[in-house]
Amino acid sequence: MKRVIALLFFLLFSSISFSQQDEADSTVVLKFDEFYALVLSNHPVVRQAELLTEQAAQELRLARGGFDPKLEGTYNLKNFKDLEYYDKLDLSLKIPVWFPVDPKVGIERNEGEFLNRENNVSSSPNGLQIYAGISLPVGKGLFIDKRRATVKQARLFQEMAEAEQIKEINKILLTVAKDYWNWFYAYNNYLLLQQSIAIAQDIFDRTKVGFEYGEVAAIDTVQAKITLLQRITDFQQANIERGQSSLVLSNHLWSADGAPLELADNVRPEELVTSVFEDTLLTQLVEMARINHPELRKLELKNRSLLVDRSLARENLKPRLNLNYSLLDQPFNSNGESNNLGLTDNYKLGVDLSFPLFLRKERAKLGQTNLKIQDNNFERDFREREIINSINGEYIALVNTGAILDQQQQMVNSYQRIVAAERLNLQNGESDLFKINLQVDKLIESQSKLLKLKSTYQKNVANLYWAAGVTNLGR
Questions:
Q1: What confidence score (pLDDT) does residue 390 get?
Q2: pLDDT tier at 27, thresholds 50, 70, 90
Q3: How much is the pLDDT for 20?
Q4: Longest pairwise C-alpha distance within the chain
Q5: How far apart are the C-alpha atoms of 439 and 466, rounded to whole Å?
Q6: 3-state secondary structure string, 12-52?
Q7: Is CATH 2.70.170.10 the classification given to domain 2-62+148-305+374-467?
Q8: What are the tens digits of pLDDT across the range 209-224?
Q9: Is 350 helix (H, G, I), strand (E, B) or coil?
């Protein structure tokens, strides 16, 4: 009877293997790389992060607006008791340029009985005068001014937005990777415990047959029943976890038009092949983090922005001294008649000067900027050390998890040999079903732990690349 049960037990393992193959043929494999690409393309949070670059581009456009040409005009008329006091018109076009020279071209017309003599213009019949001139700062504003500083900082902000975008995308991708490998464990553990029910059911059925033939005691059937119920309970719990992990993973699935997607029941994770990393990986990731980590990149760009602020603060320590020069009716007048160009004839010249005597506001601003630069440098040094230690820690966890994974695989292989040996002993009448059942329990437990370690290992890979600020958190 024991030999018959052992033979049926062997056939049961074979039938389970074939049934699992048939089930695998009807399922669709969702590979991690495909899932990863789908998230990068359609996930709302990823799309939201991509808006940061567009926002930065608009900030740069806003800053460049300070260099837009500007058309200006003033018109003043006074008429009192049928007497025209004055009629003044001034239209001009300013064309700001990067170098601190602001060209200005305009037309002026001034008429009236009581017009101030300094406002008299050309004696041409239409009373118009053409002028063209420049304003040149030779003190404050020669090397940098608020307008140029804003453009420089807007360009830096654009790069900071790109770093922030990478940071936000990496954050969601880390969650995505962990959720996928949680689903991987839950799905495969569900299949494993599904097999264990079939094994326990067969043992229970064979035990009842053995009891009917007087080969097995009644209490043995009770123990077999308990084992079967425990396997069913474990399977039901695994099914709950599989469903929950599937729903969590569905949070990251979206169509190209923004519609939410859900995993179908016939979708399963890919078969896992553990990656092998070279010893130079740690050094490479540390160097990559020092150069391209989004946190360090943002702090470096912030420092460059503060240096622009410091240059502007130093520039503000200088007196404001602007030279204004305009040619009048040169090289042609309002009638279109050409005139000889002469810098010492028909011109207006002016000088603007201002200078705070104590410079307390300017010196305070410079001092504040220097403190901000020191603060930013301290923060960057701390963050760099923190990031490098995090990379080292994740790498140690990865290496050790890999070693534990190898050991666990050896344990699974050993338990499989023990179960095979117990089957042979049972065939020879030297064992019993319950001893096999005990070894099967240990085998299932070790296989479940192996699946958990595989999931943990892949999550450690994702953690390692995330700690280094690398966008690709795959294998």
A1: 96
A2: confident
A3: 42
A4: 136
A5: 40
A6: HHHHHHHHHHHHHHCCEEECHHHHHHHHHHHCHHHHHHHHH
A7: no
A8: 878 887 777 887 888 8
A9: strand
What span, in angstroms and rounded, lies between the C-alpha atoms of 292 and 286?
Answer: 10
Residues of the chain with CATH 1.20.1600.10: 2-62+148-305+374-467
d(CA 385, CA 391): 10
Q: What is the CB neighbour count within 10 angstroms for residue 244?
A: 13
Residue 37 has pLDDT above 70, yes or no: yes
How many Å from the N-terminal Cα to the C-terminal Cα in the chain? 51
Q: What angle do CA 362, 364, 365 make, to 5 degrees?
A: 65
Give the tens place of pLDDT for each residue, 158-190.
999 999 999 999 999 999 999 999 999 999 999
pLDDT value of position 232: 94
Residue 259 to residues 49, 51, 223, 231, 256, Cα–Cα distance (Å) = 18, 19, 51, 39, 7
8 A C-beta contact, residue 339 and residue 130: no
Residue 458 and residue 464: Cα distance in Å, rounded? 10
